[in-house]
Amino acid sequence: MLKYSITSILIICSYILFGQNIQITGKVIDEKDVSLPFVSLSVEGTYQGTISNSEGIFEFSLPSNSDKKNLIVSHLGYLSDTLEIKPDQSFYLIKLKAQDYYINEVEITTRDSSLIYLQQAIDKIPENYLDFNSRQTGFYRESLTSEEHTLYFGEAILDVYKKSYKNKENGSVKIVKSRINKDITNDSIPFLNFYGGIYQPLNYDYVKNRYAFLDDANFKKYIYQIDSLIVQGDQKLLKINFSPKYRSNARFKGYLLMDIDTKVIIRIDFTYSSEGKKKRTQNLKHNLEALDLRSIIQYEEIDGKYFFKYSYDSQLIRNTSKDIEYNLLAEYVTTNIDKDNNDPIPYSEQDLYTAIFSSEAEDYSNSTWKDYTTLSLDSTTQLQISNNQSVELLSNKQNQTSNPYLASDIVSFASNMYFGLTMEFKQYDFHPYIQFNYLPNQNYSIPVALNNSTEDYSGLMGILYGYRLSNNCLLFIETKEELISNFYKSTHLGFTYDLALKSYGKRIFISPTISIGSIKYGINTKTFSNTQEFKIKRKTFDADKLSLTVGKAGFELKTGIDFKKELTDKLTLSISPYYSLEFGTVPKLFIKEKSGFFLTRKHANINIENNEHFYIEDQVIQNIKNIASNKFGLEISLELSTL
Length: 643
Description:
By secondary structure, the chain is mostly beta strands. The strands form six sheets. A twelve-stranded mixed β-sheet has the order 8-12-13-14-15-16-17-18-9-10-11-19, sandwiched between helices. β9 and β10 (149-162) form a beta hairpin. The longest helix has 20 residues, at 379-398. It starts with a helix and ends with a strand. 33% of the residues are buried.
């Protein structure tokens, strides 16, 4: 027994010594003991690191078996510092010395000169930034505050697949862990959400995406002007301001810093233009108005290549109906890059652009993320969250049946919905000699005749409503109707399974699909001039003109293969060849009023076979049964996510 106890103790001790990560915390200050925000900290020779918060505080986790023991600290305007990571030290107070620098007024301020530098920087992106695909780990935070009160606060550890900077192709994101804290007693939270927020490491990489003011197609919308040349040691940084041209619809204004020798863009700082505020307000809706924006994007260098290190996005929004201002803050920092792992994230594991992680996140007060590098909270937010947790505990005791996250659940549900517009091409076989009389009453006879034989193609238009059960599994309801020549109506319930042929960027899928539904279709004969009113199934038909269609009604089973291509984050094009099998169909006469107010026009269908109201021969019934739609068809659709 003693032997096993000693063994157990040794195993536990070895786990403690070798299995846990080293937790490093600290604060960065200047020579006057003033806190330095947004300071970059990285482990020498690796892509591991973090950023200090607004109070200069930082924290990150380092594997205990790491042989990298030096911490590199760098910040614009200060001398970089290197310090040893000691096993017995967990807190570091780092004091950076200001670096002597001077700013040269640049006399060359023409737009052409600015654009020459900017175009050179864009042309050298494939050379200056990461030239390999990689899996990256990062930390994402989003919050909503009002009047110094935190209404919502969420964090996530993200696994990011990122393509090289050689092209604009996007990657994919997977949520590893997430947690939230929310003030459940506040009923004034506006219709705000952070869907798409977890894609900040991809969408906010303006250099890789060549987005907005870095897109040469938009150069004509902006004024670019060299502001100054900042000389800091051996590094010379060119500050280029950008702003919209007069009457331009450009959305941003700000500046970027570029190394004048290497043509590397290392920092971008911008806000809304007046047009940008207007567009943001239009997108927000719900009595919300965009007031201000502050966005910062930083890049960092290792082994001569730069990568997306940090992004900060703070939006000030006002609820005009309640006269309340809200601040939406989203931050992301790359904490590690696995250079040896360039495998895309499997599609089934990805979190899509519309994902809202708050619906499945763990409670902030019950979470411990000691093995992950995170951004330190500032003291004000920590206090607000602590107060919120106390209020939440009290509220839960008072009302155990309430669901504080109902709004998030609703938004999450809506984010999985999509709808589409569909067009289907279908071939019909029409057979000759269909002639009979319909007798709605003893004194009135309506002749029905079709004497031509042909093959015809019809274009069907439809609407599709769907819900995504998971990344791969989708349910949908689809309705279609013939709008031009012949008659066709259908409603199908279906299931699709998406198989990703390309799981990143503009994804490509091959998707087996099956659906079952009701169908009605037939051949229009001619418009009949009605001379007296009659009743069908309690409906009184009294219009001057009637449309008569001979056809069938029943059920249809469809199977097919969808070929899908994402056009944008929300829009997908689908081309679907299919095979259909009809069953349970019966001959029908479809009657519809063709005159009178279009919203009050009545329509009905009547079984033809074994009906005393029809004067019809058996061969004619057989001809009607032989009317058929081709078993093969082609469907094209555009599918749009609801959020």
